[in-house]
Amino acid sequence: MTESSSKLWGGRFSEKTDLLLEKINSSLQYDKRMCQEDLQGSEAYARALQRANLLTKEEMEAIHKGLAQISKEWEKNTFKVKPMDEDIHTANERRLKELIGLPATKLHTGRSRNDQSNTDLRLWLRSRIGNLDKYLRQLVKEMVRRSTEEKDILMPGYTHLQRAQPVRWSHWLLSYAWSFKIDVDRLAQLYDRINVMTLGSGAIAGNPFPIDRQLLAKDLNFTDLSPNSMYAVGDRDFVAEFLFWASLTAVHLSRLAEDLILFSSQEFGFVKLADSFTTGSSLMPQKRNPDGLEILRGKAGRIFGHCTGFMMVLKGLPSTYNKDLQEDKEATFDTYDTMEDVLQLTEGLLSSLKVDKVRCTSALSPDMLATDIAYYLVRKGIPFREAHHLAGKVVAEAEKKNMSIMDLPLEELKTISATFEDDSKDIWHYENSVEQYQSTGGTSLSSIEQQTIELNKWLLIRTIN
Ligand code: ARG
Asked: HSE of 400 in the Cβ direction (CA atoms, 13 Å)?
């Protein structure tokens, strides 16, 4: 056999493939991660061929035996890759032929690597989504645990990174827990769109043999069938969606990381990272660098890179399969690996850090209660706009006198509005301030308890297996 005729598609070629093209065209070094999924798809496809009388029972059994043997070889790392193995599909089929001879050459009947590779990647991703779901849930669980235990700690809430209003530390924690909960929900929706079988689409036009796609899908545990073969082989929406999902989740992780980097700085000092998640400086002995958090923040860039990079691959492609689509694998694998690591890292960082109640509380300042002056007046019947204006006057008066708003005597307040009474002194308690926010989603104790109850309830329901 000449070199080119030993290729699966080599029949019509007489010249050797350029070495560089051979190297860059080959995907085996990364798509071998789907070796078991490729075998799984072939095993089911052999059954479908047998049902369609395209294989005898004996041939199907021989194929199954061969596939099982190849599976073991991959498992034991004894599979010998040959230079002509262009991708995982060709490698497995080549090996099958070596093992069982003739029946192997019937396995690809009606199938193309176009529907095969799409199916393999769906199988691969489908079986990994559960891990991401698990790690995210562990993270949410840890956040709920901490926010239940540490609900008494108050700290400044920020908008524009300026002190805004006092909030509970737990409220801040739960704000991220909710983001991650919704990321999990989004992942479950995405799972349904991954879980669609594209096998049986052939190269482009469909499968010309009486393959029962419903049964084949059932065999492979897919819940749906792709409805159009051209859509199926050209589609990588499920990959793009996964990459976007990871990007958005990475946004949440990076923002959490950024908050914690700030909070762990000497200027804030709200939290102290565990030694095990901090590194030192080779030059400055006093340093405790939040490298783990910075890695977390930085990995978001890498993940967006995969997402935007792959969108650029898809943009303007002519319809159905083009080799450009082979880029789907590395983007998916690296995104998955990165997400798996960063989610576990986040949980480790978060569960081991210590929150400094004193530093959090002492960062609160009376100016953060300016809104509460307005709310006080509203409760006494003054329309909000006017109350806001009067509260502004209180702030200005305190500034003029170079004193804190809470130290302005009642007589002074009364000159601004006769509505101020003795009970206005209650405004100056941070605890009272946060306890006002009783309505759903607020920062009062009751609302936080409600949030943790809901999240705990949600944690019990598994949407992805
Ligand atoms: N390794 C290829 C991929 O993942 C398989 C499909 C090849 N199809 C083809 N017509 N060359 O995209």
From this structure: 8
Closest Cα partner for 350 from 186, 141, 154? 141
Look at residues 303, 328, 362 and tell me which one is the last residue of a structural domain.
362
If asked whether residues 317 and 376 sit together in one domain, one would say: no
* Any ligand 1 atom below 6 A from CB of 168: no
Q: 3-state DSSP call for residue 115?
A: helix
Residue spans of alpha helices (H) in 150-212: 169-194
Report pTM: 0.94
What's 426's domain CATH number? 1.10.40.30
Res 351 pLDDT > 80? yes
Going from the Cα of 146 to the center of ligand 1, the distance in angstroms, rounded, reads 48
- In angstroms, rounded to a whole number, what is the distance separating the alpha carbons of residues 132 and 298? 19
321 Cα: distance to centroid of ligand 1 (angstroms): 8
Question: What average pLDDT score do residues 218-233 get?
Answer: 98
Is 352 designated active site? no
Q: Which of 358, 352, 202, 348 is nearest to 269 (CA)?
A: 358
Q: Taking residues 100-106, report their average pLDDT.
A: 98
Could you tell me if 353 and 289 lie in one domain? yes
H helix runs in 315-417, sequence order: 328-352, 357-362, 370-379, 384-400, 410-416
Taking the centre of ligand 1 as the mean of its atom positions, its distance from the CA of residue 176, in whole angstroms, is 40
Residue nearest to atom 10 of ligand 1 (CA): 114
Task: Say if 252 falls within a structural domain.
Answer: yes
Residue nearest to atom 7 of ligand 1 (CA): 113
Are residue 45 and residue 180 in the same domain, yes or no? no
| Whether residues 168 and 258 fall in one domain | yes
Residue 3 lies in a domain: no
Average confidence (pLDDT) over 261-272 = 97
Give the pairing type, strands 196-197 and 224-225: parallel
Q: Whole domain around residue 181: which residue ranges? A: 113-151+158-362
Q: Residue 170: pLDDT band by 50, 70, 90 thresholds?
A: very high
Residue 312 makes CB contacts below 8 A (sequence gap 6+) with none
Place of tokens 């393959």: 211
Judge if the beta carbon of residue 27 lies within 6 A of ligand 1. yes
Residues 102 and 130 in one domain: no
Torsion sign across C-alpha atoms 41, 43, 45, 47: negative
The verdict on residue 465 lying in a domain is no
| Cβ contact 199:116 at 8 Å | yes
**Based on the domain organization, do 233 and 325 belong to the same domain?**
yes
Beta bridge mates, 168: 154
pLDDT at 3: 52
The structural domain count of the chain equals: 3
User: Please, which pLDDT band fits residue 372 given cuts at 50, 70 and 90?
Assistant: very high
Tell me: do 353 and 244 sit in the same domain. Answer: yes
For ligand 1, atom 3, name the residue with the nearest CA: 326
- Whether residue 464 lies inside any domain: the answer is no
